[in-house]
Amino acid sequence: MFADKKAVIWDLDNTLYRITPEIADILDETMAVALIEDLNVPLDLPECKALVKQSYKDYRDGGEYFYQHYGISQKDLSFYYNKRNPVHLIEPYQNLAIKLKKIPLEQYVFTASNRETSEKILKRIGLYDIFKNRFYSVEDFGVYKKNENADVYHQYCKKIGHKPEDCIFVDDSYSNLEFAKETGMTTIRIYYQNNSAADKEYIDAAFKGVEECVDALIDATK
Ligand SMILES: [Mg+2]
């Protein structure tokens, strides 16, 4: 399944590092603070944070409720939320860079975080040298999400000079994999508790945590 591929495209957040439940809660609060303090949403913090959580449940996007009900723009929320991202709280995996270098394929990152925050995160997790000129944000393609249509994946492939059929796309959010698959990429899902998307036919393989995935890619490409 992976043997004849030329490139691996990694999601960043909760794929190349783990967003623990504790960090996820802090990120929800961070978004609520950005909504209240930067974008003047007239709610108190507990109320706003609860709505962010509900919005993630309902739409897989913490901001969606606020785009719909408070006229907040995706662009503004993305800017202020990214600006407040508590990157220093991330616990990097040990030796992930060394392991990644053993995969004999070109490697890239495609993230929904903006460029500035992605750069900070890559530095924090010790992967900036590997992905220095090889990471792209949704904002490079004029969008804010990876799960709206396949077009952004076609554009991505064009940018890196590979055919979708030659690429493996790895993401923890299975809704992103659907459109990657539609372009012809091979798709891998990273999960942590249990593989809640085992029934999705557009997912070719799933691994518990990125390290298991990296080991499998090293093995498959030997
Ligand atoms: Mg992710």
How would you characterize this protein structure?
- It is a single chain.
- The chain has 222 residues and is of the alpha/beta class.
- The protein folds into two domains: 7-17 and 91-220, HAD superfamily/HAD-like (Rossmann fold), CATH 3.40.50.1000; 21-87.
- It is built from ten helices and six strands, in the order E-H-H-H-H-H-E-H-H-E-H-E-H-E-E-H.
- The chain has helices at residues 21-38, 45-59, 64-70, 74-83, 96-100, 115-124, 128-131, 151-160, 174-183, 210-220, and strands spanning 7-10, 106-111, 135-137, 167-171, 186-191, 205-208.
- It has a six-stranded parallel sheet with strand order 3-2-1-4-5-6, sandwiched between helices.
- Helix 9 links the parallel strand 4 and strand 5.
- Helix 1 crosses helix 2.
- The longest helix is centred in the first third of the chain and has 18 residues, at 21-38.
- The protein is globular, with a radius of gyration of 17 Å.
- The mean pLDDT is 96.
- The structure holds magnesium ion.
- Residues 11, 13-15, 171-173 line the site of magnesium ion (MG).
